[in-house]
Amino acid sequence: MSKHIAVLPCDGAGKEVVPEAIKVLRAAGADFEFEEFDVNADAYMRTGVAIPDEVWSQLVKADSILFGAVGDPRVSESDYLAGVLLRMRFELDLYVNLRPAKLYDDRLSPLRREDKRAVDLLVVRENTEGLYVGMGGRFKKGTDQEVAIQEDLNTFIGVTRIIEYAFEVARKEVVMVDKSNAMTYAGGLWQARWKAAVAEHPNVKARHLLVDAAAMQLVKDPTQFDVIVTGNLFGDILSDLTAELIGGMGIAPSANINPRTGRGLFEPVHGTAPDIAGRGIVNPIGAILSASMMVRHLGHTDMAQAIEGAVESAIRAGDCTRDLGGTLSTAECGDAVARRLRD
Ligand code: NAI
Ligand code: MG
Q: Which of 2, 125, 126, 20 is nearest to 68 (CA)?
């Protein structure tokens, strides 16, 4: 039976890149039924509802969700983001956020040293806890006595399961990143669960780094990393850094998954790119590689490899958008990848 994919292009650049990802999936021969939903800032402004109940019940039933990006200066960023993306991550319990970074062509690296460029790593970011749960408050808001508290929520189960997942996908080594020297309560729980996991996996190399040292090492020599596991905030920040090591925001893919239930939402790392959206120049590769992560998650390993191969070939040939040094439009770049899959 063909898989049912819920499609949420959302706003700005998301609306431009998602159709290219679907184009490439079709060219790769994916037997999927795509259903697009009208979840975006226009609908939110019209109705005041981020995701209507009838849409939500469809999203929960879908085999996977293909997502673009949300964001619009006309709506409250935090309410809208919480109502769409964070709601799906939290309520579908998509606790693993995978952000791979692989350099497809040497010319895309910003690093001067040639021997440090060949990055091929995976950031495993905790996706349902940490500082993003929205707990806390503002007391005496707007006065000069204001107190703002943002709480960092970490649970035994949440920390244990994300570290365990990192060990399951490691090829060479797992590096756990935290700030346990300064943030001692959350850090203490992460350290305890980390040490337990290390003891359970004597055959996998394991190393701990503080987040500041990790940021430094990622610029100094990213080739040393295989799998990095970390909390929600640090994972968000470090994965923008790793995106820049492989060619920038336009190329970086991500998966939000629950490996136990099989649920998944796949989206480029980038946002709505308001500075360049609407001109047909945004790079669709991040969305295309996210679609390839989706087919891999759904069990089609060969198809995922074929899409990645086609992307690599297009990039190396210079068949890409201007952010990667090419001259193609968004749709032409999608065509360049799709053509390689049909040939
Ligand atoms: P952004 O990722 O949209 O843009 C950052 C920079 O990367 C910009 O210079 C942009 O032109 C460039 N860029 C992004 N995507 C690109 C692509 N496909 N091709 C070429 N260049 C690309 O992040 P920014 O500017 O911080 O946020 C813009 C809006 O997007 C905000 O409303 C924000 O809340 C939202 N956002 C949404 C996300 C999501 O839906 N997951 C993630 C990040 C931001
Ligand atoms: Mg980010």
A: 20
Model confidence over 104-116: pLDDT tens digits?
999 999 999 999 9
Region 57-72 average pLDDT: 96
CA R_g for the chain? 20
Gap from CA of 269 to ligand 2 centroid (Å): 7
Count other C-beta atoms under 10 Å from residue 12's C-beta: 25
Among the listed residues 44, 132, 152, 323, the single catalytic one is 132
Instruction: List domains and CATH numbers for the chain.
Output: 1-94+256-343 (3.40.718.10), 110-245 (3.40.718.10)
120 is catalytic: no
Distance, CA of 109 to CA of 119 (rounded, Å): 9
Ranges of H-type helices in 28-150 = 41-47, 53-61, 77-81, 87-91
Q: How confident is the model at residue 79 (pLDDT cuts 50, 70, 90)?
A: confident
Q: Transcribe 183-238 into DSSP letters.
A: SHHHHHHHHHHHHHHHHH-TTSEEEEEEHHHHHHHHHH-GGG-SEEEE-HHHHHHH
Read off the pTM: 0.96
Q: Taking Cα atoms as reference points, which of 272, 279, 284, 266 lies closest to residue 321? A: 284
Q: Output the six-digit token pair for 109.
A: 């690296």
For residue 338, the surrounding DSSP H or E stretch is helix 330-342
Coil/strand/helix, residue 205: strand
Active site residue 61: no
Q: Atom 26 (ligand 1): residue with closest C-alpha?
A: 271
- Residue of minimum CA distance from atom 38 in ligand 1: 271
* Residue 115: exposure state from Cβ atoms within 10 A (0-12, 13-18, ≥19): exposed
Query: Of all protein residues, whose CA lies closest to atom 5 belonging to ligand 1?
Result: 273
Does the active-site annotation cover 132?
yes
pLDDT in tens, 289-299: 999 999 999 99
Ligand 2 centroid – CA 94 distance (Å): 16
Q: How many CB atoms lie within 10 A of CB 160?
A: 16
